Amino acid sequence: MITLTYQYKLKVNRQQEREIVHILDVGKSVYNYALSERKDWLNSRKSLADRCSLVSEYIIPADEPYPNYFVQAKNITEAKKFSPILKTVNAQVLQQVLKTLDKAFEQMKSKSFGFPRFKKKMRSFVFPALSKNFLGDGCLNFPQLGKIRIRQSREYPSGFEPKQARIIQKASVFYVSVSFQSPELVPDMTVGKT
Q: InterPro entries attached here (predicted)?
């Protein structure tokens, strides 16, 4: 399959801008809370046996499972029942935030990257699944935000369908990166081999 990513500038109104900033803020809160959960779990497992800390003591049961992506995604659905702020954001967007954190932990272990840090600000979020009527003439139809006008600098590729969209904030301007995928299979040809 061939994947193309096109970036367009969004022309948002004030209501849409407030909604996007709200999603970024809630995503940052979910990321930081999930990171603190993982950090507390790890700190509770490496406390010294012969003495206890004067600053803080982690009271997490010994049989508590490690808060990986699946445990935390399940906890988000439970938290949505009690938190009205989480209900205002698309569930798939929050799951993608948790996947970003999970990927950061995988890279820390496999590629010797540093421990993930708390975020002061989120700059982007992803809609992983798009509706059939996502592409419009000079606008895009997002699941939660509705129709947003774009500066269509180039035409949509023909024969490709949109798979995911990432909204990015650069300074005070918003962009969308749309990933298009072709349903046709391309043979894997290595150069120089017959």
A: Transposase_put_HTH
